[in-house]
Design goal:
The complex is a heterodimer. Chain A has helices at residues 40-47, 70-77, 95-106, 111-124, 140-152, 170-187, 198-204, 222-227, 231-237; strands at 2-11, 14-24, 29-33, 55-60, 63-64, 80-83, 158-162, 190-195, 207-212, 215-220. By secondary structure, chain A is α/β, with parallel strands linked by helices. In chain A, a hairpin with a 2-residue loop joins strand 9 (207-212) and strand 10. The chains are: A alpha/beta, B mainly alpha.
Amino acid sequence: MIELTNVSKTFSGQKILDDISLQIGTGEIVVILGESGTGKSVLLKHIIGLIKPDQGHIKIDGQDISRLSERKLLNVRKKIGFLFQEGALYDFMNCFDNIAFPLREHTRMKERVIKEKIQKILKLIDLQGVEDKLPSQLSGGMKKRVALARAIVLDSKILFCDEPTSGLDPIRSRDISDLIRNVSKELNCTTVITSHDIKNSFRVADRLILLGKGKIIADGNRSFFEQSNLPQVQEFIS
Amino acid sequence: MKSFFESMVNIVRGMGDALWFLCDILGHILCGRIRIGEVLKQVYEQGVQSVIIITLTSVASGMVLALQGYVAMSRFGAKEYISHLVALSLVRELSPVFTALVFSGKAGARITAELGTMNVNSQILATKTMGVDPVEYLVVPRFLGTIIALPVLTIISEIVGIAGGYLIGVYEANIPGAFYINQTIKAIRYVDFFSGFIKVAFFSFIISWVCCYQGYFTRGGSLGVGQYTTKAVAYSYIYIIISNTLLTKFILTFWG
C-alpha cells in the first residue's frame, strides 16, 4: 500500500505538486497521466524518496519515508523496482551482470542460483540469448525489457515505471505495456507508471490519475475517463 | 550588481557542495564502506593503464634535463654533477608535478567522463533506486584508486626519469656509469624523497576530489559531460600548480 497525504513541492518558486493526497492499493496498476512538466516524474521520485516533499507525508506499507535518512531509504528501496525512461542500464556491464546486480548486492545467492533466476526472468520477459550483450548492442525496446528484468529481479512487490513507452514505435510500445501488465499481475506488484501515452495507458492500467498544474484533476478507471465531461480529460484523451 | 551577488552566492554554494561531497566520501572511508575489488579495478584502470604515458613523459624529462644540464654545467667544468641536478630536480619537483599533470589529464578526465556519463544517463540515480549507495559503489573506489595509483606512478616516474638522465650522462657526457649511479644515490636524501612524496599525496587528493566531484554533479547531457570533464582537468591543473608553489615554500621553510 502506498499512501500520499497532502504532498506539496515547490521548485524555484513554482509549485510542482500542490497538496496531493492519494492511496494506491496492493497489486493495483496505476498510471499517472499528464502533459510534460505537470509533475508526473517528480511525484514518482517523491514516492521512491529521491525527492523530499516540502509538506505532507508518503507512506509505503505503513512506513513514512518522507523523513527517512538516505541510508534508511536505501533499505526501503531494496523492495522497490524502478524502470527508467531510458533504461539506465550500466553500460560497462553486459545484460546478465546488469540484471544480476541487485541480487549480488542484496542477497547471498550463489552464482548458479543467480544464473537460474535470470534465465527464468528472461523467459518471463521473452528475451533469451542477450545475456552476453552490452546495453549499447540492444535496441530501445530490448533495453527496456532488460531494465524491467533488473527492476523485478529481487521479486519486488512495488514497481515504478517512468514513461516506459517513450521513444518506442507503436508496436514496441504496445508490447512493453502488455509486458508490464503481465509481469505485474504475475508477481502481484503494486505498479505505478507515468505516461502521456493514453492508448497504452488504457491497455495497462487498473486505474488512471490525470495530473494538471500539480493537482489531481481526475482519478478513476478507463470507463470513468472515457465518460468524463471534464474538459482537461476530454482534451487529453481525444 | 545583482548578477555579481548571484555569482558570489553560486561560488560559495559550489564550495559548500564540494566540501560536503568530500566529507561524504571521507565518512564512507572512515566507516570502512570500501569495496576492495572495485578499488583494485580502479587502481588497474587508472594506474596500470597510465604506466606507458608516465614512463614516456618521465624518460623524456630525465633526458632533456640531463642534456640541458650537460650544456650548462660543462661551462663551469662541473658536468660530473649532472646526476645531482637530474636526481634532485626529478625527485623534489618534476616527477611529482609532471606525473600529477599527466595523470589528471588521463585518469582524472576518465573519472569525470565516466561518472558524468553515468549521471546524465540516470545510472547514478538507478544505483540509488536499487538500494545501493552510489558514493560507496562508484565514487569511493575511484577516489581511493587515485590516492593509491598516483604515488606509485610518481615513484616509477622518478626511477625512469633518473634512468633517462643516466643514458645521457653516460653515453653523451661520457660520465662513467658506476660514478653516475653512485652520485645519484649520494644526491638524494631522505628529505628530498619525503618532500616529493608530500606533494604527490596532496596532488592525488586534489585530483580525486575535483574529478569525482565534477563527474558526480555533471549536468546537461553529452555536452555537459564534455564541459565538466574539461573543467575537471583545468581545475586540477590550476590547483596542482598553485598548491605546488605553496608546498615548495612550506617544505623549504621547514625541512630545507
